[in-house]
Fold these 3 entries.
Entry 1:
Amino acid sequence: MHFDLNFPVTASGSSSQPKKNKSKQPQQSSPVAFTPAQIKGIEAPSANRMTVGYTVIAFNQTVNKKIDPKTHVNVLDGLLTQLRARPGTVFLKRLTIVLDNDSEKGFGLTNANTSLVEPYDVISLLPTTSTTFSLACLTHSLPSPLTAHIIALPLTLPRLPFQLKHTLVRTAIKNGAVFEINYAGAIGGEIEASLSTFGVSDTGVSGKRNWWAAAREVVRVTKGKGIVVSGGVASEADYRGPKDITNLLTLLDLAQNLAHDASVVVPKSLVLRSQARKTYRAVLSEPRLVVPEATQATRPTQQIEDGQNLRDNANVAQSSQISPNPTLTPLQPAFRDPQGSKKRNCGDESTMDGHPNKKIREAANSNTEGELRRKKKKAGNREKAGAV
């Protein structure tokens, strides 16, 4: 399963203007209606992405500076309803906010605008100043209903407008955010027109050279972790397959396994976390009770009673093997062990047919023979003493 989380969509559709309303309630803009030619121009590139191996595609809507409740229009809701459903392919909605100096005072990710942001599956921030980069890494990467999981970087500019500090990057990755690298700048392809309008991208040979230098810096600071690679291309001729993108990332001194994870593992975990964004604090989801199948826990008292019954049965069985009829077995004299350590009952050492054990007989015979030898030796010593 391969992911392409940046399919740029331009809000060029026609929408009806809302009527003037003198009440203080916020006006809701009507959804954008795309023409059949525009729908065809979007379905063809998406079909090409599916052909080369992408199964999850995110349509990206770009907003400049901030989200304004009065003018913001969600163009992706109407687009997904007009697209043809394709089995085995998942379409997502992504919102990217370009942050500049005017965005330092606020760019619309507040609780008042939660209803505007909630329909989007993924939220992305594209900072262009050091202040907005710090806000994106420290504040807006924390778990909340307005969490931004992708931090896009303007890699085609002559130089990055901010410094990639290790503390900021590590904090963002720890909070669950990832840094996006669009391969459109590496091949010098046509990128989204709105980015050029906002002044956050450069094209041509200089843009390609800037991309390689900035992308190497991103890999060096992040150490290859928390990186996601996306397309961001606007022309069908610039599409590349997942394997080609993996080989492209290895040229940035990125290991082969990390280059593979940048388009498979990291985007998958990103999408799962973005789904949890819609829940409270991005921690709990809808609870579901799971009942075990035909398994009941036994009570501790019942287990103790079962154990006592088993021990009683074992003692009865052992006693029945030693003496089949204990009431009729006569008492037998105790027998002292040859070493004198313990007293044993002859009945205990007997076999099942009542004959004494062989070892007991040998021990008794050895004791009697030893006494006879000692007596003969004492008698011989006495005769020698008398003769002398």
Entry 2:
Amino acid sequence: MNVTEDTSWRTICAAKKSAQLASIPAEWIIKCLPELESQGSVRGVPARSGLLSERELEITETTDVALLLDRLHSAEWSSVEVTTAFYKRAIIAQQLVRPSVRIPSAFCGLYALRPSYERLPYCGAVNALEGQESISSVLGPMANSMSGVRIFTKSIIDAKPWTKDPVALRKEWSESEYRLYDHGKGHGLCFAIMWDNEVVRPHPPLQRAMAMTKAALEAAGHKVIDWEPHRHLEIYKNAVRILLAIDSLSSHGFVPQETIFVADGGHDYRTQCELSGEPLIETMLPTTDPHPSTLGEPFVKTLVGEASHLSAYDLWQLHKEKRDLRKSHLDHWERTISRTGTGRPVDAIISPAVAYTAVPHGLNTYVAT
């Protein structure tokens, strides 16, 4: 269905927003929202909003989920109190925040897990590019503590999601794997730090954080070596690009490559937008008073070029290239056994989630590591 009126999607959006606000109890509406938004950071909004009592702030700012569960178990807090407090805090978030997972967590000092694909259930989730299975998207938790990530993940796996989602892996929670029994039980590990992926160099705050991490690991008795970057630009061009697909990069000096994501040339996005007439959002830059950018165009476009529609055969070649890159990277990892001193390849690679600290809206132009 094509919508011819330019304002129809705006009308639908306004109606949805009105319905959302109408569903919130009047006493839970933030009256000083414009003032709070003008302060830039939204991290202090729950405390400044006036909607949460001191006790509710204490409950919702308890970052250790295990401690929260203990206080529920001991009846120090009631289930009603905890549910109401988090319900109110969620409603506050619905009036300000629209989060993702990996990069927002890094920007905001949170813990997050981007699991291997098909490890946690995805069946029934609303998504774009439905039917694109070349590289599966995943769902994962965001939390204020590692205990929260662990409890969430274990709870989901303990519910046997493979009985509801046909592609979820049939693999129960393994406490021995969690405690690293096959990795020296967590003692005397060897980590590799990727200081630079030879595509984008992390900014000084990220380099400083990695140096602090290295020092802490070594002080705890672990070994840290440098990770030697391996074909990262090829991996990036094959898999990570979201909106662009190309036929050739010869004008940029790169070997001709093509991308898996949106090998349809953006057809799915356009088709979905045509249902309402809404324009395709190509940037998150604000329409008023945007932050200036020193880049002439998004960096991903500089690396990749313009989008194009790929044939089924072209996509198969990308799949073959992806398998070859995976094998090459696996072999590269396994060869580190000669450098670790543990009799094993490196136990983990450490790198920034993104190459820079939090940026103004619209300037998060490079998302690969």
Entry 3:
Amino acid sequence: MAPATLLSRVRDKVSVDVDSMDPDVAARHTTDAHKFRDMTSNQAIVYSEAVRPERAHVFNAAVAQIRSAEAQLDIDSQVSNALDLLTVLLAKEVFPHLTGRVHAQASPTAAYDTEATIQHAKKLVALFEANGIPKSRVCIKIPATPESIVACNYLERLGIRTLATCLFSVPQAMAAHQAGCLYVAPYFNELRVHFEPGVWKEYTDTAREHPMGPVIGAIVELFKDVGSRTLVMPASIVTAKEVLALVSLSPDHLTLSGAVLDQLAAAEGPAELDTAPQPHHPDVSLGTAPVSGKEPAGKSKGGCTVLYEFCGPPRAGTERIPAVSFSCLYIYIYIYSFCGWSGVWRLLDVWAVAEPDARSVNYLENGAAALRDAFTADAESSRKMADALKIFGEMETKTKELLRAALQAY
């Protein structure tokens, strides 16, 4: 019997999803013992598949179907419909390798428009059903803005399952739980690391020192506290070392790119890991400049520095009342191990002032006003969200340009 790989060991701990629309990736890492649960995608993944010669048959099929059936429509409508059809057809090729759902992401241009998000989600589900994939096997990824969280709540009541993506904070996660989302996908790394390798930062103890480690850990524990049925699926993972760190936080799922899956499959133990980052799209040019704002924390300088950079200094005059639930205690323990009591008090300052007890806040009422306030108070999450939407918008535009040229030449 072949020795167990790190990938098989990870699969024994969490459900592993494939963050790729390449059926060869799914097939390569499917065995009798281990199959992928879901397939996740986004506008960048669709574009990266659209430009591959090996996927030309899918691209051409989408163009041909739209040109033959919708020639009477204006070219902008044809392009928009061709993009949605291309997304569905790419997912359909991976679908045989899944035991769960295909995920397609709503347009980033609709992220701050509740009705437009709802209509796009319904359109995608209808297209999947028309192409042989039932609604029960579909999940729509929706950026977790206040407007789109309201859309998630409406779609869930229609029986359309949703995943709250572009998620960087506990308030976003709690809003998604309250909306009834099937999944939340907290980004471990901001989106730009997949296009600009220099943005990625390495940490000695990834689970403890990475700025998103405590956030994801807090989301997992909070969901346990409230009995949430929403599943935690960390995303935007670029190394196998990060996978192992995330497994230690006990999420429900991990969605992994082909390159990271290959890293895990090639190693039998942590000592054999290739630790080089594996961004999704290092070969795709990105014209969008980063959104201005607080820069992400640099390479680890020790726990206190990371905590200070992530949380900021304690607020003057804050009443420090350690209202700590038992399930959150582990976060305080490892902050104490790095920073002592000063670090614990600083964390309490942030949670007590910047993010009140999330369990007591209704993030959906008044058009998700509390979530909007949370974004206003959290410059880093706001920056990451704006940056992700700009990048996804740019990738969507690139794919539309390819489709427009093909439709006009047909």
